[in-house]
Design goal:
The structure holds two protein chains of two kinds. In chain A, the strands form two sheets. In chain A, strands 1, 3, 5, 6, 8, 9, 11 and 13 form an eight-stranded parallel sheet that branches. Chain A has a five-stranded parallel sheet with strand order 2-4-7-10-12, with no helix packed on it. Chain A is of the alpha/beta class. The longest helix of chain A has 28 residues. Chain A has seven helices and 13 strands. Chain B is mainly α. Chain B has 17 helices and no strands. Classes of the chains: A alpha/beta, B mainly alpha. At the A-B interface, helix 1 and helix 4 of A face helix 13 and helix 14 of B.
């Protein structure tokens, strides 16, 4: 049987495609295992595992989605076949009246078989070119440097508060960042599975990414404070660019580099959160506790 | 942490006090979550021959009796000044451990319902006395600044041990490990509490006065929290909600093989080790948060985590209903991991909160009411509700949905209440200014 963990995202994609095409999702029939011969499709058939056969001399109408297992067409299928994974075989006597669209998986059409239209969506695995890679890095450095320079000039207190939390309360910031990041990520992924909450999930992920970017800017401000010069905004911008490059280089060091990256991002994220995006200084609850 | 300062200054007496506290509380909690919660169910169903429902009724009786004894003991401790007397608390605990050792050793021999009932009554007395006596040690042994971290260490130790050993949930396994640990523990406690052994007396003399400096809890400054105040009953209500949500959900989860096969009832040791490590991490996070944030944040996180974990479980159950072919895969390990974090969070909070709402004059009654009402009575009520659901043939999805809804309601209610409180305060400041 197909691994459910692998299958579930593809099923979500199928549900999305069905919703977009106006089909009724609740009428979807999914086959997960075993050998089955079909002579009728109620509304939509999804092949997730096992083997589904359209027998010779049978005429079956309806769309079929293949996300795993095998679909063998010996008779006639009046409808489209969308293949996201698995195997589709149209034997010599078989026919697909609509379109056979292969996005991934193996499809074979025997000589003599008829297929209305056959399309293959090309998925080209591109090796990242150095120019593109470094260009993107430079773009990130530039954008964050601009943000750091602007904030350091107009609202330096925001960056100071976040930076102070990183420097003076790294444990609290790291714990809050790691914990909130992990739970929020899990929550957004599960929200996406509900389909209706996909926009909320995407919005949440975008806010998360912006918050991480803000943390980079705060790190840039901290680095900028150590740089020579009397222009805090320029120093913060240079610091942010340096941080982006340094964190990227860290990611190229196996294991230790990634671990340090994680700690930096978690601590920065936490510092942003505990200071309410820099609008407040972080004061531990027991900071002024009488001895 | 002040502990590091003590170690740097080679002040061993307070440092030993930390160790004594963590060892006693972690052992007591381990006993509670393994022997009492799991072992008694096995004893009642397998050896005595009762149905699970009958055992649940007895467990509910145990919870109510324990609460009653705890409150009576706590109030007595406060009125007679025992709450501020370390030696008396240790003597009470010695009595508790001695009685529990005898009860634990004898439990696997029980075969009749009356004997089971008598055992429950005796165990309730031991547990009820043990709650204020053990939690009351906080004022003597743990300075306020370190209570979150010490509570975290206690939680981590108890849950790590409970998850990795023993894997076999039988009364014989539990009794064997407990008696092996309790006999030397009882002897050591007896020596400490006897007042007749020189080194033990010197240690106690060093620890006995610490409550004068450390005894007034974090939330009792500048004014002590009175028993009849919202400042005390608010946290009791919130913690009651936490225990109720946890217990009501877990009672059903643990009875559903598909949901526990890859977690608490897994035959694979790696699954248990994973849960144990997650409990440790969760407790450490909770310790840091408790020391650095307002307690309401921690409550909000606990309710949020319970909402999240039940959202995961209900999603799994829904997916299984929509796509039966996927159901054989069981629940994701993420579900039990988030559950473990939530449990570690509130257990850490539970260890630190009640002493922090107390002074040496009130710690007996406050810990008894807090732990007894929020912990034991909530468990009693959730057991009753779970039994009702079972009788009403409520489906798994509906049951978990209700728990999820309750957790979400408490989460949203708490956030709204905190916000409203701040809003009112801001409005008053504005009108006064």
């Amino acid at each position: 049987m197909t691994d459910p963990v692998e299958l579930l995202p593809l099923l979500v994609v199928v549900v999305l495609l069905l919703s977009l095409s106006g089909e009724r999702v609740e009428q979807m029939e999914v086959v997960f295992e075993g050998d089955r011969e079909i002579t009728e499709i109620d509304d939509v058939l999804v092949v997730g595992g096992g083997t589904v056969t359209v027998p010779a001399n049978e005429n079956v109408s309806g769309p079929v989605y293949v996300v795993g297992g095998d679909l063998r067409i010996r008779g006639r299928l009046d409808g489209d076949v969308d293949q996201l994974a698995g195997n589709v075989t149209v034997v010599g006597t078989g026919a697909v009246a609509g379109e056979l669209r292969t996005i991934a998986g193996n499809a074979s059409v025997a000589p003599g078989a008829t297929v209305g239209t056959r399309t293959t969506v090309p998925i080209v695995q591109q090796e990242p070119s150095p120019a593109r890679e470094y260009g993107f890095l430079a773009l990130r450095a530039l954008v964050l440097a601009l943000a750091a320079g602007l904030l350091a000039r107009r609202e330096p207190a925001l960056l100071r508060n976040v930076g102070d939390s990183v420097v003076h309360h790294p444990v609290v910031s790291g714990v809050v960042g790691a914990f909130t990041g992990a739970t929020a990520l899990a929550l957004f992924v599960f929200m996406a599975f509900t389909l209706v909450l996909i926009p909320v999930s995407l919005f949440g992920l975008a806010v998360g990414l912006l918050t991480v970017a803000y943390a980079y800017v705060a790190y840039g401000y901290l680095v900028g404070r150590a740089l020579p010069g009397d222009r805090p905004d320029l120093a913060a911008a240079a610091g942010a660019a340096l941080v982006v490059v340094a964190v990227d280089l860290l990611g190229r060091v196996p294991l230790v580099g990634t671990a340090v990256q994680f700690v930096l991002v978690a601590t920065g994220l936490g510092a942003v959160l505990v200071t309410y995006y820099g609008f407040r200084e972080f004061e531990p609850a027991l900071a002024d506790f009488p001895e | 942490m002040r502990l590091f300062g003590f170690l740097r200054e080679r002040r061993w007496t307070p440092a030993v006090g930390y160790g004594l506290f963590v060892a006693l509380l972690a052992a007591g909690y381990y006993y509670n979550v393994t022997f009492v919660q799991l072992g008694l169910l096995d004893l009642g169903t397998r050896l005595v021959g009762m149905t699970e429902t009958q055992v649940s009724v007895w467990m509910a009786a145990l919870a109510l009796l324990t609460f009653g004894v705890a409150v009576a003991t706590g109030v007595t401790m406060d009125r007679r000044g025992w709450s501020a007397d370390l030696l008396v608390k240790l003597r009470l605990l010695f009595g508790v451990v001695a009685l529990q050792t005898v009860l634990t050793a004898g439990a696997p021999a029980i075969r009749t319902v009356p004997a089971f009932g008598a055992w429950i009554v005796a165990a309730s007395v031991a547990l009820g006395v043990g709650i204020p006596a053990s939690f009351g040690l906080t004022v003597d042994l743990v300075p306020v600044e370190d209570r979150g971290y010490v509570a975290a260490a206690t939680t981590a130790l108890a849950y790590f041990a409970a998850n990795v050993y023993p894997l076999d949930w039988s009364i014989e396994s539990f009794a064997a490990i407990m008696v092996a640990a309790m006999v030397p523990g009882a002897l050591a406690l007896g020596v400490l509490a006897s007042g007749r052994v020189g080194p033990a007396n010197r240690l106690l003399a060093g620890l006995a006065d610490q409550h004068e400096e450390w005894g007034v809890g974090r939330f009792c400054r500048p004014r002590p929290v009175r028993t009849r105040s919202v400042a005390f009953w608010g946290p009791v209500a919130l913690m009651f909600g936490v225990f109720f949500v946890d217990s009501l959900g877990f009672l059903r989860i643990v009875e559903t093989p598909a949901l526990v096969r890859g977690a608490w009832r897994s035959p694979d040791f790696a699954d248990h080790l994973f849960l144990g490590v997650v409990h440790v991490l969760g407790a450490l996070v909770a310790g840091v948060l408790y020391a650095n944030f307002d307690r309401n944040w921690l409550f909000a996180w606990v309710f949020g985590l319970f909402s999240l974990t039940h959202l995961f479980y209900t999603t799994d159950v829904r997916v299984a209903a929509w796509f039966p072919g996927l159901a054989s895969g069981g629940a994701s390990p993420l579900n039990s991991a988030v559950y473990a974090v939530a449990v570690s969070f509130y257990t850490t909070l539970n260890f630190a909160l009640w002493p922090d709402l107390s002074t040496p004059d009130t710690v007996g009654a406050h810990t008894a009411l807090g732990v007894g009402l929020a912990g034991w009575v909530a468990t009693f009520l959730s057991t009753a509700v779970a039994l009702y659901f079972e009788a009403a043939e409520v489906t798994l999805l509906s049951h978990l949905n209700l728990v999820n809804a309750l957790a979400l309601l408490l989460f949203a209610g708490l956030v709204a209440a905190v916000y409203l409180r701040r809003l009112v305060a801001a409005a008053r400041e504005a009108s006064a200014g």
